[in-house]
Every structure is written in structure tokens, then in C-alpha cells.
Amino acid sequence: MPTSTRFVLSLHMLALVANKGGAPLRSDDIASSVNTNPAFVRAIFSRLAAAGLTTSQLGHRGGALLAREPRAITLLDVFRAVEDRDLFPFPRARAGAAANRIDRHMTTTLERVLAPVGNALEQALQQVSLDDVLDDIVTREQVGALVSDH
């Protein structure tokens, strides 16, 4: 199954913007931090803006801004904004007459058995905000500073 890094990179990008405290952040600066190119960053911000999560300020001192407070942006919001797949994708059987009972019923059986996993994942992402991510980063930074002081 192909995977995408858009979700993780989007969270990183949003955390960088949130960390600026309301000042716009340029796509070149973000691209350098997340180790990708500015065009990819702009494409991700386009998706985030379409979902109402970010906005942009044009001009010499322009850049990306959050459209909502970090506590009002959930990880599920971010995932839905940037991914082109289901949260918990199920394999699909081939169309047409299946050769045997396993082939005929595997997809519907997996959907029934794994649906609770997908629902739990969705609920977990809905309960975590960008603010929670930032709080965890700050805590880790503080703990790291304490450890390095000893």
C-alpha cells in the first residue's frame, strides 16, 4: 500500500507557523526546515487553506499564517485536508466474478473486522490538537534542557 508523508510534513509545517506567534512564515524558510522544496510547501499550504486551516499574507513580509487557533486544529482536520485517501484504507477486491469464496468475501469481511480500528484511529486524531503537539514539543525541549544541564 503506498504511503504519503503529507500528513506528517503538514503537522511539522503547522507547528512551525504556530511557533512564530502570529508572524507570517515564508515557504522558503519552512521548506528548509522540513527538508523539501518551496513548491511542495506551497502546494500543501494550498490544501490547508482550502480546508480553512491556514491563510497567507502577500507582499514583502508575507507568508503562511494559521487561520485558527492551534487548539482549534485537530490532527484529523489536518489529515483530511492533505491526504487523498481514507484514514484507514481497506484493500479492494477485483471487479467481476471471483474465483473462490475467499476472493468473493475478503473485502467485506475485512471491512467488518477492521472498521472498529479505523473508527478508533479517527476518534484519537480528533482528540489531539495542534496545540497538544506544540505542548509536547515544549515539554520535550524543557526536559532536554534539564538533562543537558546535569
Automatic annotation (TrEMBL):
Matching entries from Pfam families are given as: Rrf2
Choose one Gene Ontology CC annotation of this protein and give it: cytosol
Could you tell me which InterPro entries the record lists for this protein? Tscrpt_reg_Rrf2, WH-like_DNA-bd_sf, WH_DNA-bd_sf
Please provide, alphabetically and separated by semicolons, the GO molecular function terms listed in this UniProt record. DNA-binding transcription factor activity
Name of protein:
Rrf2 family transcriptional regulator
Taxonomic source organism: Sphingomonas endophytica
